[in-house]
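pls design
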């Protein structure tokens, strides 16, 4: 099966406390030349970056780790949604916790999808795009 890659430009903020996962995710996403990536190690760092936006960079997708110390994914999600202009930005959880009750709980939070860890770096960009395109599809 031939997959046609979308050329829709994406600015992705990757939030994960594990530096190895941040590095791998950023490298994997950058394999798609239409994706710009920034990565931070905590919910607090993500919020500070989004509030500052000093250089005008603004993500149109946020990949958010569920299990982080101090401020976990759901708490970070709520704080991001409360920021001006971020109520509708697609947010995708990245997690190793992907049992059915977990997924149902995440869906109830209003996220746009889940990338299960360990993810396939060669398909990460396509997986993110598929989740975002599903969001835009009419029901």
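designed seq:
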């Amino acid at each position: 099966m031939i997959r046609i890659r979308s050329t829709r430009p994406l600015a992705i903020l990757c939030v994960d406390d594990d530096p190895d996962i941040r590095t791998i995710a950023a490298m994997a996403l950058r394999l798609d030349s239409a994706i710009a990536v920034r990565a931070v190690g905590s919910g607090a760092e993500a919020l500070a970056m989004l509030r500052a936006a000093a250089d005008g960079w603004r993500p149109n997708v946020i990949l958010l780790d569920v299990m982080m110390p101090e401020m976990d994914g759901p708490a970070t999600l709520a704080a991001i949604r409360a920021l001006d202009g971020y109520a509708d930005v697609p947010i995708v959880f990245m997690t190793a916790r992907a049992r059915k009750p977990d997924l149902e709980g995440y869906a109830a939070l209003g996220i746009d999808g889940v990338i299960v860890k360990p993810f396939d770096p060669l398909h990460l960009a396509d997986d993110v795009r598929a989740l975002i395109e599903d969001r835009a599809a009419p029901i």
